Amino acid sequence: MENILKVSSKSNPNSVAGAIAGTMKEKGRAEIQAIGAGALNQAIKAIAIARGFVAPQGMNLVCIPVFVELKINEITETAIKLIIENR
Q1: Residue 16: which domain range?
Q2: How far apart are the first and last CA of the chain?
Q3: Residue 73 is part of a domain; what is its CATH number?
Q4: CB of 7 closer than 8 Å to CB of 32
Q5: What is the reported pTM?
Q6: Could you write out the DSSP letters of every residue in 27-65?
Q7: CB-based burial of residue 23 (10 Å sphere; 0-12 exposed, 13-18 middle, 19+ buried)?
Q8: For the segment 18-64, what is each residue's pLDDT rounded down to a tens digit?
Q9: Which of 2, 18, 44, 59 could form a disulfide with 54 if both were Cys (CB 3.0 to 4.6 A apart)?
Q10: In total, how many domains does the chain have?
Q11: Backbone phi, then psi, for 2, in 5-degree steps?
């Protein structure tokens, strides 16, 4: 999937939730990438908010966490990718 939503510890969960809801409606699936505890916290909050956004359309969001390794400025970082699907 080419459109991975990148979340930081400073990301606004409501804004990310809107992006998740839009991606879910458009593609039926979304992916979020987070590096660090603060970023993961914002991502989880955003998923919880997005569930409320898409529930009226009959969607029930679930997320699957996966570890991924990223190379950033020649340094390998471990990130968590959250795959969001409709159950």
Answers
A1: 4-86
A2: 19
A3: 3.30.110.20
A4: yes
A5: 0.90
A6: HSEEEEEE-SHHHHHHHHHHHHHHHHHHGGGT--EEEEE
A7: buried
A8: 999 999 999 999 999 999 999 999 999 999 999 999 999 999 999 99
A9: 59
A10: 1
A11: -85, -25
